[in-house]
Automatic annotation (TrEMBL), chain A:
InterPro entries: CIBP, EF-hand-dom_pair, EF_Hand_1_Ca_BS, EF_hand_dom. PROSITE patterns: EF_HAND_1, EF_HAND_2. GO terms for molecular function: calcium ion binding; magnesium ion binding. It comes from the Eukaryota. The keyword Calcium applies. The keyword Transport does not apply. This is EF-hand domain-containing protein. It comes from Perca fluviatilis. Keywords: Calcium, Magnesium, Metal-binding, Repeat.
C-alpha cells in the first residue's frame, strides 16, 4: 500500500494514527510537506523514495548537525543511502513528536549517535558526537587534551560495566536522569 | 520492554573475534558485534511469540499502545499489527469492551490534546524563542505566561464574587450594622472640590487619587450592603472570603506547578556541575531552526563543556591550596558577605526614609506632589538596580565557583527585592497605626491615624497600584531609552569601546525577580484594590510583547545557559517567598488593624475578621453544630493522625523506589563482570584449543 499524490485515504490515515504518535493534523501536514519535495512525475508513483539530499532541504533538518545520521537511521532502503519513503518520514516524525515516549526517543537517539553502527558507543563515536555538538570549525572544536579528559569523564560516569563503551541500557540510564531530554528531542513541522 | 527484542536479536549476532588473532587493537574484554551482511541488521528483531507473562500484563492494555512505542519501521509495525489482529481469536465480551473503551479513551485524549494546543496562549512565539535563544530564556517567558493566566483567572474570581454583586446590588440592600462611631472618624471625602485643572486627570490616573479614588478600583467604594429579600448575598463576607480564597487558589496553582518540576528534580538528584554525559547526550535541541541558531547552540555547548572542564580543574587546584591561602580566602569571603549585607541594609534605610518623607508630604499638588508620591517606588527601583551591580563586583572578589556565584547573587537579589517591599509596608503600617500604639494622640479616637488616613485601606491600595504602574513604566523607559540606543550604538559605531560593551544580553534571573516582585506587590494589594489582578494581567501581557521585542531586536543570547527545569523550580520557590510575605500582610490587616470607619464594607466592625463570627450565628443550627464539630478536637486530631499515616506511606514508598534503583544499578555492574568472566573463560578455552591443534599438527 502506498500513498498517492494528493490525498491520504481515510483508513490509511487512521492506521497511521494508530501506528505512530502523531495526531491527524500532524500526519496531514507531514503529507503536505513530503509531497512538496516530490518532482512532478514522482507524484504519481505510489511509495516513492526521496533521496537524502532532498530531505535535507527541509528547514527543520537543514542545519541540524545530526541530519545525515537521522536520515540514515530512519531509512529502510536496501542501499543504505538515507533515502526516505513517506512512511519512513512518518516514523521519523513520530519518534521526534511531542507525545513519543522516553524509551523510543532514547532508543533512536542511541542509534543516531552510534556513528559506526556497531551497537555501542565507543571512543570514536563519542569523539564524533562531541565534534557534531560543538561544531566542526577549528575555533569551536575542543583541544585534544580537553577531548581526552571529556571522553574519560563520560565513560567514567556512564560506563557501568566498565567495558570501555556505552551500550543501550547505560545510555538509557543516563537519559532517564535528564529532565530536558524529552522536550529537546523534538522536531515539529 | 520494547528494547528487549532488539537485544535478543543482537545477542545472536555477537561473534568473539579474539580467536582469529587480530593483533593489538582488540582488547580481550570487549565484545564486538560482527557487521553481518543481513540488510536489516540494525533493525530490532521482533519476537513474534510474545512471552506469556508479558501478554497477561499488557495484553489488556491495548496492544496498539505497545506498537507505537516499538522502534520498528512502519512496514514491520503494520505486519505485526495484522498478525496481532489475526491472533485475537476468542476474546471474551468483557475483554473486547475493555479494549474498545481504552481505544476510545485514547482517541478522546488525542482530540483533547489537539484542542488544548489550539487554546494555549503564544505557543508559536514560545517555540520561536526557545529555538533561537535556548531553554533558559524560554523558561522566563513560560513563567510569565503562567503568571498572566493566574492573574486573569483570579480576576474572574474576584469579578464574579465581589465586583459584579457590588455593581448589581449597589442601590439595593441595607447596611449590615447600623451603629455609628465618632464623627471625626467617619469624615471621608474623596471627591475633589471645585474646578480641577486639566493635567490633574493625568496625575490622578497615575497615582490613583482624585476621580480614580472613589471607584470600584479601591476598597473604599464598596459598601457593607447585604441583600436579604430574594437572594441572600452578604457583600462584606463575600469580599473577605474571596480574598482568602484567592490566596489559597494561587498557592494551589503554584504548588501544582512546582509538583511536576520537583518530581523531575528529585529523580535527577539535582543538577550536578560536571555531569558530562548528560550534557553530551541530552543537550542538543533538535528544535533549533536555521544556521544562526544552530551555530549559537553549538557555541553554547562548547562554552558549557569548557567551563565545566575548567571548573573541574579549579576544584582540583582549590583542594590543593595551602592552609594559609585557605584562611585568607575564607576571611575575604566572610568580610565580603558582611559588605553585601551592609549595602542591603543601607538600601533599606534609604527606603524607610523616603517612605516616611513621602507620607509626610502627601498633600502636595502638581508635579512635585507626584514626585513625592512616587518617591518610595523611585528609591526602591534605584536600590534594586544599584545594589545587585555592586554585589556582582563583590562576588568577583569572593571567587566562588561560577555556579555558586549565580545562586548567591540570585539569593541576595531576592532578599533585597522582597524585603525592600517589606520595609515600605512596615513604614506604612507604623504611620497608619502610630507604630501599633493606640494610646498615641492621633490614634486614640479611631484606633488608627484618621487625620492622615481617613480611609487607610484605599491609601495602601493606592501605594500598591503606584508600585505596579511604576514598574511597568520603568520597564518601558529602560527599553526605549537604554536598550534600543545601545543596540544602535553597538551596531553602527565600530569602536573598541562599543565592541567591548557589546549587545545587550537577556539576563534571565534579574528579569524573573522583576516578575516575582510585581506579583508580590499585586498579592499584597489585592485586598485593598480588587481590580489590581486585572491591571496586572494587562501589565504582564504588555510586558510579554515588550520583552519579546527587545529580545529579538536588541539582545544577543547569553553564552552561559540557565538550566531550564531546575530554574523553573527555583522561580516558583522564589514566587512562594513573595506569596508568604503577602499572606503575612493580609492576615495582619484582617486580624489586627481596625478598619476605616468612613469607607469600605467593614466600616463598623472592630476588625475585618469579626464579620465571620457575626454571620456565623445567622446560619442554621445544624450548620453551626457541624462547623463546631469540624473545628473541635474530636475531628481534627484523627484527621491529623490520618494525614501523618498517609505521609509516612509516601515517604516509605519513595525510599523503597530509591533503594530498588540502587540495587538494579549494582546488578547491572555484576552482570558486566559476569560477561567479562565468561569472555575470559572462552579466551582460555580457545587458546587451549589452538594449542592442541598446533601440537597435533606438529606431531604429524
Amino acid at each position: 500500500m502506498g500513498t498517492t499524490a494528493s490525498q491520504l485515504g481515510k483508513d490509511l490515515l487512521s492506521e497511521y494514527q494508530e501506528l505512530t504518535f502523531l495526531t491527524k493534523q500532524e500526519i496531514l501536514l507531514a503529507h503536505k510537506r513530503f509531497t512538496e519535495l516530490l518532482t512532478k512525475d514522482e507524484k504519481d508513483l505510489p511509495n516513492t523514495r526521496v533521496p537524502a539530499e532532498r530531505i535535507l532541504t527541509l528547514p527543520e533538518l537543514k542545519s541540524n548537525p545530526f541530519r545525515k545520521r537521522i536520515c540514515h537511521v530512519f531509512s529502510t532502503s536496501e542501499q543504505k543511502d538515507g533515502s526516505l519513503t513517506f512512511e519512513d518520514f512518518l516514523d521519523l516524525l513520530s519518534a521526534f513528536s511531542d507525545s513519543a515516549t522516553l524509551e523510543i526517543k532514547s532508543h533512536y537517539a542511541f542509534r543516531i549517535f552510534d556513528f559506526d553502527d556497531d551497537g555501542t558507543l565507543d571512543c570514536g563515536d563519542l569523539e564524533k558526537l562531541v565534534n557534531c555538538l560543538t561544531g566542526e570549525t577549528d575555533e569551536t572544536r575542543l583541544t585534544t587534551e580537553e577531548m581526552r579528559q571529556l571522553i574519560n569523564n563520560i565513560l567514567e560516569e556512564s560506563d557501568i560495566d566498565k567495558d570501555g563503551t556505552v551500550n543501550l541500557s547505560e545510555f538509557q540510564h543516563v537519559i532517564s536522569r535528564s529532565p530536558d531530554f524529552v522536550s529537546s528531542f523534538k522536531i515539529v513541522l | 520492554m520494547a528494547s528487549e527484542p532488539w537485544r535478543q536479536g543482537s545477542r545472536e549476532v555477537y561473534d568473539y573475534t579474539e580467536g582469529n588473532g587480530y593483533p593489538g587493537d582488540q582488547q580481550s574484554l570487549r565484545l564486538r558485534r560482527v557487521s553481518s551482511r543481513v540488510s536489516n541488521q540494525n533493525y530490532p528483531q521482533f519476537d513474534w511469540n510474545p512471552p506469556p507473562a508479558e501478554k497477561n500484563e499488557e495484553g489488556n492494555r491495548g496492544q496498539p499502545r505497545d506498537l507505537r512505542g516499538s522502534p520498528l519501521p512502519m512496514a514491520l509495525k503494520r505486519a505485526v499489527r495484522q498478525v496481532q489482529q489475526m491472533q485475537v481469536p476468542v476474546v471474551s465480551s468483557r475483554e473486547s469492551w475493555k479494549r474498545k473503551k481504552t481505544k476510545s479513551l485514547r482517541k478522546f485524549k488525542d482530540n483533547a490534546r489537539g484542542c488544548r494546543s489550539f487554546f494555549t496562549l503564544w505557543s508559536k512565539s514560545l517555540q520561536k524563542i526557545g529555538g533561537n535563544f535556548g531553554g533558559g530564556v524560554q523558561s522566563y517567558f513560560l513563567f510569565l505566561r503562567f503568571l498572566v493566566v493566574l492573574n486573569f483567572v483570579s480576576f474572574l474570581l474576584i469579578a464574579g464574587f465581589v465586583l459584579i454583586p457590588s455593581i448589581v446590588f449597589r442601590s439595593v440592600g441595607d447596611s449590615l450594622v447600623n451603629s455609628t462611631g465618632p464623627k471625626e472618624c467617619m469624615d471621608y471625602d474623596p471627591n475633589p472640590q471645585g474646578l480641577v485643572v486639566f493635567y490633574n486627570y493625568f496625575l490622578n490616573l497615575l497615582s490613583g487619587t482624585g476621580f480614580m479614588e472613589y471607584s470600584y478600583l479601591f476598597y473604599g467604594y464598596y459598601n457593607n450592603t447585604t441583600v436579604e429579600d430574594r437572594n441572600f448575598y452578604n457583600i462584606p463576607l463575600a469580599y473577605l472570603f474571596t480574598a482568602i480564597f484567592y490566596f489559597a487558589f494561587c498557592l494551589i496553582c503554584i504548588i501544582a506547578r512546582m509538583g511536576t518540576a520537583a518530581r523531575v528534580v528529585v529523580v535527577t538528584g539535582g543538577s550536578a556541575v560536571g555531569n558530562y554525559s548528560m550534557i553530551v547526550f541530552t543537550s542538543w535541541d533538535y528544535g533549533c531552526l536555521g544556521d544562526r541558531a544552530t551555530k549559537l547552540k553549538q557555541k553554547n555547548i562548547h562554552y558549557r563543556l569548557q567551563v565545566d572542564l575548567e571548573e573541574e580543574s579549579i576544584k582540583k587546584r582549590a583542594a590543593a591550596l595551602t592552609l594559609c591561602q585557605k584562611i585568607v580566602l575564607y576571611a575575604l569571603r566572610v568580610s565580603m558577605c558582611f559588605g553585601s549585607f551592609g549595602l542591603i541594609i543601607a538600601a533599606f534605610y534609604g527606603i524607610f526614609v523616603a517612605t516616611d518623607f513621602s507620607q509626610k508630604r502627601s498633600g502636595e499638588q502638581g508635579i512635585l506632589g507626584l514626585i513625592f508620591q512616587y518617591l518610595p517606588s523611585i528609591v526602591i527601583t534605584a536600590g534594586n538596580f544599584l545594589v545587585p551591580l555592586l554585589c556582582d563586583q563583590i562576588a568577583l572578589i569572593e571567587r566562588y565557583a561560577p555556579s555558586t556565584t549565580v545562586i548567591v547573587a540570585l539569593l541576595r537579589a531576592v532578599f533585597l527585592r522582597l524585603v525592600s517591599l517589606g520595609v515600605l509596608l512596615f513604614t506604612l503600617w507604623s504611620q497608619i497605626t502610630c507604630a501599633g500604639d493606640t494610646k498615641k494622640k492621633d490614634c486614640t479616637l479611631c484606633q488608627y491615624n484618621y487625620k492622615l488616613y481617613p480611609c487607610w485601606e484605599t491609601r495602601v491600595g493606592q501605594e500598591m497600584y503606584k508600585l505596579t504602574l511604576f514598574d511597568l513604566l520603568i520597564n518601558i523607559v529602560v527599553l526605549v531609552l537604554v536598550e534600543f540606543p545601545r543596540r544602535m550604538v553597538v551596531d553602527n559605531w565600530s569602536s573598541k569601546l562599543a565592541q567591548w560593551v557589546g549587545r545587550q544580553e537577556f539576563v534571565v534571573p534579574a528579569n524573573v525577580l522583576g516578575l516575582v516582585y510585581g506579583q508580590t506587590v499585586v498579592w499584597t494589594g489585592a485586598l485593598f484594590c480588587p481590580l489590581l489582578p486585572l491591571i496586572n494581567t494587562i501589565k504582564f501581557v504588555l510586558l510579554f510583547y515588550f520583552k519579546k521585542i527587545t529580545l529579538f531586536y536588541n539582545c544577543r543570547p547569553a553564552l552561559k545557559t540557565f538550566r531550564s527545569t531546575t530554574s523553573t523550580f527555583f522561580f516558583l520557590v522564589v514566587l512562594l517567598f513573595g506569596w508568604g510575605l503577602a499572606t503575612v500582610v493580609m492576615v495582619y490587616s484582617l486580624a489586627e488593624i481596625h478598619p476605616s470607619m468612613g469607607c469600605g464594607p467593614f466600616r463598623f466592625f472592630p476588625s475585618m475578621w469579626s464579620i465571620v463570627p457575626t454571620s456565623f450565628y445567622n446560619l442554621s443550627e445544624i450548620t453551626q453544630e457541624f462547623l463546631f464539630f469540624i473545628g473541635s478536637q474530636a475531628f481534627s486530631i484523627p484527621l491529623f493522625v490520618l494525614s501523618c499515616v498517609v505521609m509516612c506511606y509516601f515517604i516509605t514508598l519513595a525510599s523503597v523506589y530509591g533503594k530498588s534503583v540502587a540495587m538494579l544499578r549494582a546488578q547491572l555492574k555484576l552482570e558486566g563482570r559476569d560477561k567479562q568472566f565468561l569472555v575470559k573463560q572462552i579466551e582460555e578455552l580457545s587458546r587451549q584449543h589452538q594449542l592442541l591443534k598446533h601440537t597435533a599438527g606438529a606431531h604429524d
